[in-house]
Give the backbone structure.
Amino acid sequence: MNDLTLKDCVDRKALSRIQLERLQQTVTRLYEKVPFYTKAFDEKGVKPRDLKTLADLAKFPCTVKTDLRDHYPFGLLSVPQNDIVRIHASSGTTGKPTVVCYTREDLSIWAETMCRTLQMGGATEDDMVQVGYGYGLFTGGLGVHYGAERLGCSVVPMGGGSTEKQLMLIRDFGTTVICCTPSFFVHLIEEAEKIGLDFRDTKLRIGFFGAEPWTEEMRQLIQEKSGIRAYDIFGLSEIMGPGVSSDCECHCGLHIFEDHYYPEILDPNTDEVLPPGEEGEIVFTTITKKGMPLLRYRTHDISRLHYEQCKCGRTLVRMEKIRRRSDDMLIIRGVNLFPSQVESVLLPIKGTVPHYQLVVTRTKAMDELEIKVEVTPDVFSDEVRSLEVLRNKIAFEIKQIIGLSAKITLVEPGTLERSAGKAKRVLDLRKQA
Amino acid sequence: MAIKQVSIFLENMVGRLATVSQLLGDAGINIRGLAVADTNDFGILRLLIDDVESGVDILMKNGIVCQYSEVCAVEIEPCPGSLAKALGVLRDAGVNVNYMYTVAEPGGPNAVMIFQFGDALDKAEEILANAGFKVLDKLI
């Protein structure tokens, strides 16, 4: 076991001491360097010195996604802007993305936790890692890339999509590890079958799948169909990117790299911190990040934390797979989607926001998005052509702004389900574990 | 000269046509002609009805999306080649027919064709009238 994996098996008392020290440095830095936090601390009546134990963190203010948008693009930096060496962003509701910034040191920490993620699934420097996440503003591609390079792997920066080329490289290069969304990998399995390629006949042996929720059943299915070992990886750009937590061979929850990302579980309604094992919203504080540290960032992901030592020997806390969210965000084929984004597309097209509903289904493990839009007298036309133009226009805008292909269905008014007069915006029919 | 038709948006699902015809039937409104355009998901029903205003009123009150539009009604003699002659005149004048259908109950010895010409309505009516066709301003 090398130095990095030793960090995963650290004595919990020692870990708590490190966490407290880093947390104290973080709150001090935030209070002194980021005006948003200075104000938030003052409003709550807390000072950095009030953090005497880890439990004291509960007294400090939380950060929400809109805080990032309100300080778009660089308002939450805790370092001078020329210390920033990388910027990433995720899709935004009204065209404004959520921006995250990294110093050189931050990138090093990210590479370290991503490297530990790969090691947790048994990857070594002898592996060839094909990165099937998108590169660019999305954190997936580059996050995995630098982690795999840190580990010493041969990295194939393939990027997302291009099914045929992915398969060609797996076969011709002898790729041993692949990282992509689970639904994309299922798609690869299906396409491989069509051309008579069995992954058992290739060198592919491990897959790290994340960026969208998936089930234990799907993991089993992937393993059976492809003969590789499949692991779940979790991350969010606000905290760092992929590699905030990760599956080990026991598959009994994802180990959080607690020496960098400090988790809490809150009751989403009362904001009270819940004891270990209870279900609530998982909240992260970055305790080593310098560029844009975030305090108690609300993920809206519902999970539980388990602190007992894992059978794999790691002492790092385990978070249960995310099963649902406390808000209306959907994750479809790795893309985050809020119903309000669809609204912002429909509004300029139709001049008014009609009733609409997002229906998400999963056929053969691929997520499908259907947007049902009620046709109002304003947009109704006697000609089929005009209605099809309208439908294509909506589909085009959704693809442009959100990056998702969706089936648009025009429906009669009053046919979409409403509860207490309020439209039910989302119908998620995907089976969750 | 043009006559009014009612166009109705319907989802392509069981019972929608039945609902519309029942609503009109219950209100004592007669359907003189109809045509349906269908796609995978939705259809547009075009109706010629006796009392257009009350018909639309009833449909709207029942949450059905509909609108008026103007179409051209032309008498066609019930003999071979007469429809071809009308269409030939239009072709020669470069007028496109968006869609057409027949009136189920023409109310006289001749057949009545309904044409949708879009913006070219006035021009088309003039062409047909000049070629000797009887263009109707209401159904008999």
Summary: DSSP finds four helices and seven strands in chain B. Residues 35 and 82 of chain B are 21 Å apart (CA to CA). Chain B has a mean pLDDT of 92.
